[in-house]
Design goal:
There is one protein chain. This protein has 422 residues and is an alpha/beta fold. It has 16 helices and 15 strands. It folds into two domains: 16-207 and 408-421, Glycogen Phosphorylase B (Rossmann fold), CATH 3.40.50.2000; 220-405, Rossmann fold. α9 packs parallel to α10.
């Protein structure tokens, strides 16, 4: 199946030609791609994995979106530490074949190439387009100690784990050495990269559209036949998938105490049952089932709603009716949902971990608790639910911070576009 937009306006007098590459396109490039395509002086070509592009709506009528097909997996004799890298090389080769076809059949020569280096797509870009400016999205550099690996004593890390994640950085290292520049969404994430490469990286967030993500006192949602509105006692939790990396086990373990302290509180949990980060479970199992079973008999499930993954507009309404929003994370990538919750005016009750502390200051833009302390989390939630007026200022400050530092149109998008152009 071919993924391609309507015909582009081609010509030799275009100001700049951009190539974006992300296996799960558009990924973090959504806003930049749209903005660049809005300018008829630009030509924008985008590449992603065919399997993941299927069924996705076209972001912009002037985009050309091409898909590459990953070869079938084959048994590997490589050392276990190298198997990810072997897969990344294979992916990089498939991208090279697609780009050579693009270059040789249409004469496309990008001025700027933008890619995420995590899956191998950026390994060989310099060999195909040696004169293009190459910018990589630097999301996270793995460490055997001090970040996510070994953070949670419930999932201890072995020496083998530490050695494996050191090898896991091979793809990024090779890609970054060949790149001209990198962009990283937060200072903490940029700081995970080696000092030798840090000089190439500019800290600039993808941006939050605060015109869309905003408080709405009229917001209402219906879940399981119940109407929830702004001002109701609603605790919210959001993650792409419900897993320990995002503190789901701590969240579930605090439910019995929270319900004892606030019997009228209703809890809305947004997220899927897959595993984005960390250890995968056996087929048919999920962390939702595992931790629900752990507190079975202690929780009134009629007041707890697992809603799965939601369309974006519905997800925003959940944030807008929230009385207290829980965001927990290992020392790892900061979720978009954290800043979106702040922009929506949520009262943040979050983990005292480094990526969170970059945006949530205890008593100023939210309330911080120890990541592992379920009892303290329940107590703080009960406190803010009991006296919402006393914490209303934190909601305002949280939104103001996002507007001042992460607003899409006025701050982040101009910075991203500037970093791409150099």
């Amino acid at each position: 199946m071919r993924f391609e937009a309507a015909a582009l306006i081609l010509g030799t007098d275009l100001a700049l030609r951009y190539l974006f590459i992300h296996q799960n396109f558009p990924g973090q490039f959504r806003h930049a791609v749209r903005a660049l395509a809005d300018d008829p002086a630009n030509e924008v070509v985008c590449v992603g994995e065919t399997r993941l592009l299927k069924g996705r709506p076209l972001l912009h009528p002037r985009l050309r979106v091409l898909g590459y097909q990953m070869p079938a997996a084959v048994p590997s004799r490589a050392h276990p530490y190298l198997r990810d890298y072997e897969g990344h090389v294979r992916r990089g080769q498939m991208v090279v074949r697609l780009l050579l076809q693009l270059r040789d059949t249409s004469g496309f020569q990008p001025d700027v190439v933008v890619a995420h280096p995590g899956w191998g797509e950026a390994l060989f870009l310099r060999d195909v387009f040696p004169r293009a400016r190459q910018v990589l999205y630097c999301e996270f550099y793995y460490h055997g100690q001090g970040t996510d690996v070994g953070f949670d004593p419930e999932f201890p890390a072995s020496l083998d784990d530490q050695l494996r994640v050191r090898s896991k950085n091979s793809t990024q290292l090779q890609s970054l050495v060949a790149a001209d520049a990198g962009i990283s969404p937060t200072g903490w994430q940029a700081g995970t990269y080696p000092q030798e490469l840090r000089r190439k990286i500019t800290v600039v967030h993808d941006g939050i559209d605060t015109r869309v993500v905003r408080p709405d006192p009229q917001a209402r949602v219906e879940i399981a036949g119940q109407q929830l509105a702004f001002g109701d006692e609603v605790v919210t939790y959001v993650a792409r998938n419900l897993e320990p990396y995002r503190g789901f086990h701590t969240f579930m373990r605090m439910l019995p105490k929270l319900q004892g302290l606030r019997p009228n509180a209703r809890v809305v949990i947004v997220g899927g049952d897959d595993v984005s980060y960390g250890r995968r479970l056996a087929e048919g199992d999920s962390y939702r089932l595992r931790y629900r079973s752990e507190v079975e008999g202690q929780v009134d499930w009629a007041r707890v709603f697992f809603v799965g993954k939601l369309p974006y507009a519905d997800y925003l309404k959940v944030l807008q009716v929230s009385s207290a929003h829980v965001y927990l994370t290992y020392p790892f990538v900061l979720s978009w949902s954290a800043l979106e919750a702040m922009a929506a005016g949520c009262l943040m009750v979050a983990s005292r971990t480094a990526p969170v502390q970059e945006v949530v200051e205890d008593g100023v833009t939210g309330v911080l608790v120890d990541f592992f302390d379920a009892e303290a989390l329940a107590s703080r939630l009960a406190q803010v639910l009991a006296d919402p007026a006393a914490f209303a200022g934190l909601r305002l400050k949280a939104r103001e911070l996002v507007q001042q530092r992460y607003d899409l149109q006025s701050i982040c998008l101009p910075q991203v576009l500037g970093a791409l152009r150099g």
